[in-house]
Structure formats: C-alpha cells, structure tokens
Model the fold of this input.
Amino acid sequence: MLIGRLNHVAIVVPDLAAAASTYARTLGAKVSEPVDLPLHGVTTVFVELPNTKIELLYPLGEDSPIAPFLEKNPSGGMHHVCYEVDDIYAARDQLQAEGARVLGDGEPRPGAHDKPVLFLHPKDFCGTLVELEQV
Done:
C-alpha cells in the first residue's frame, strides 16, 4: 500500500486563538502552541487526538496560499488531509506514473514537523487536497 496512516486533517480558521481554545477548553484536547511556517505561509496549531491530529491553519503574511480559501469560506473549513508515506520520492514517482498531479515544482519541502511533504491536486483525489508526509 502506498499510503500509511492518516497523519492529520487540516482546518483553516479565521481566528487561531479562538479555534485553539475551542479544542482545548470545550473539547478537552491537548493543543500545541502556535508555530509560524513562513515557507508555507501559515501559522499552525496541532490538536493531539488518540488516533491522529487536527491541524488548525491561519494565514501568515499577505501572500499566504490559504488566504483565498478563507476569503471564500469566512467561517473556515476543512482544507486538506495528510497521509503518511515511507518514501516520499517513491510515492511521488508512483503517483505521477498513475497520472496524479503534484502541486508546485514536484520537490518535497519541509512541513510542519520538519519532515518532507508534497501536495497533490484535489481534482485527482475526489475534490480533496491531499498532503503526503514522509515518516
């Protein structure tokens, strides 16, 4: 099997502090401190669950790639799912051979966990943006 376990589900939020508080206070989840990821143009907070994580995303800077998503969805919403892979280069090559489109230049970049990540075109995956993270 190419993909491994679900690493996280990412949700774009209009207010990061309020969203983190909802998960921590209302739902009783363990919530990380915010981390700026300038390379990706986002600030992230991770919500730890027993079987996966929720990544809360907020735009960082004027050119944030998630800013248009938030403009279209002012209340926020689900942005992408992230699956783990053992070898991101082998996964990329296999997916491209099957006709899947890798976003950007096709080269993995360090993600929120300093592990290599790639994003796959949502039109190739049932309308869902897919992130692959090497574990």
Remarks:
- The chain has one domain: 6-134.
- The longest strand covers residues 77-85.
